Amino acid sequence: MSAKKTAAKRPARKAAAKKTSAKPSVKKAAAKKTASPKPATLNAAQQAEYEACSNAGFKDRKKAPVMMAAEGRTALRQFVVVAEGDSWFDYKPAFLGGKDLLGHLQTSGRINVYRVSKAGDTMENMVYGTDTSGKGTGMKPALPPQLEKTLKAILDKNADAFFFSGGGNDLAGVELASYLNHKTWGQPVIRKETLDFIFGIYFAKALKDLISAVRKVKPGLPIFLHGYDYAVPDGRDVSFLGFNFSGPWLKPALVQKRRTDPAEGIEIMVKVLDAFNAALKKVAADHSKVYYIDLRKTLRNGANYKDDWANELHPTSNGFQRLAKKIEAVMLEKLP
C-alpha cells in the first residue's frame, strides 16, 4: 500500500474516533436523566415555621396567654406538655407543606409542647437506654440516658402532662418480619406468640417502668399514650436532607415473607396495629391518670389514602392535623 493511500485513510479513522468518543457523552446524558432527585430541604420560611413549632419557640409560645391578658383579651389556660417519642413527634419533612403532629397540636395555643423526641428512637432506648458513643474498644453507653433527659424536662419545664409516642420503630423493619410466617410454610400469617410477647409483655413492661419513673419525679402527673393509625405498606419512603430515618419500613418485610398482595399487606398491618393498640389500652387501664388515645380510623388506608399518608409510616401535614385535633380534644377533656 502506498504512503498516499495510507494518508488518505487517516482522516476517516479520526472521524471514526470522534464518533466513538461521542458515545460516553450520550451515556452521561442518559445517566443524568435516571439519577435520583436530590433530597428536599426547607426554605427560609419553612425553617422559620419549624423553629417556631420546636423548642426554640417554647418561651415565646408560653408568653402568648400573658400578652393576651395584658391586651384585655380572654386568655384560656395553656398546658405545658413534655413530649417524648419517635418520628411522629420529630418529623421535620412535614414542614415542607405544613406542620408535623406536635406543630398542629400547638395551633390553638392551649397546648405548649417541649420536645425530647428523636426520629428513629426505640421503646427500649427511650425507657432503658441503648444508645452508645465511641467505636471499637472505646465504645460505651451514651450519657445521659434518654429517660434522664425526659425526667429533667418534666421538672425544668414544670410540665402539666407527659405525652409519649413509642413503639413504631419496634413494629417496623426487621421487627415486622419477625412477626410473620413465610407464605410457603402453610402456617397462619401472624406469629401470634411473638406478637403477644413483644406487645403484651415487653412493651407492657417498658411502659409500666416509664410511668413509674415519671411518677417518681412528679406524682400524679397526667400521662397520655397514643396508638398508631393503620399504615399502608406500599413501599414509599422519605427523601429529605438530613433525615436519617428514610425507609421504606413495611413492604420489604412483607416481600421477604412473600406477602406481595397489597390487600393482604393492609390486612396484616391492621392485625399488627390492633395488637399494639390493645397493649397500650390495657396499660393505661391499669394506671390512674394514664390516658390512651385511640387514633385508628382517623386516616384512610383505602381509597385516597395518599392524601393522609406521606409514606409508609408518616402522615401528610393534613393527616397530622386531623390526628392533632383528636389528641387535643382528649387532652383538654382530661387536664384540670
**How many structural domains does the protein architecture include?**
1
- The arrangement of helices and strands along the chain is HHHEHEHEEHEHHEHHEH
Low-confidence sequence ranges: 1-22, 29-33
Write out the CATH superfamily name: SGNH hydrolase
The CATH architecture name reads: 3-Layer(aba) Sandwich
The count of strands amounts to: 7
Average pLDDT confidence is 88
CATH topology: Rossmann fold
Based on secondary structure, the structural category is: alpha/beta
Calculate the terminal CA-CA distance, rounded to whole Å: 105 Å
| Backbone shape | globular
Secondary structure elements and their pairing?
Blueprint: H1 3-34, H2 44-53, H3 58-70, E1 79-85, H4 101-105, E2 111-115, H5 123-127, E3 132-133, E4 140-141, H6 146-156, E5 161-165, H7 174-178, H8 192-217, E6 223-226, H9 251-256, H10 262-285, E7 290-293, H11 317-334
Helix pairs in contact: 6-8, 8-10
Please explain how this structure is put together:
The protein contains eleven helices and seven strands. It is α/β, with parallel strands linked by helices and 336 residues long. The protein has a single domain (40-334), classed as Rossmann fold (3-Layer(aba) Sandwich), CATH 3.40.50. The strands form two sheets. A five-stranded parallel β-sheet has the order 2-1-5-6-7, with helices on both faces. A two-stranded antiparallel ribbon has the order 3-4. The longest helix has 32 residues, at 3-34.
Q: In summary, what is this structure?
A:
The chain has helices at 3-34, 44-53, 58-70, 101-105, 123-127, 146-156, 174-178, 192-217, 251-256, 262-285, 317-334; strands at 79-85, 111-115, 132-133, 140-141, 161-165, 223-226, 290-293. With 336 residues, it is an alpha/beta fold. The protein has one domain (40-334): SGNH hydrolase (Rossmann fold).
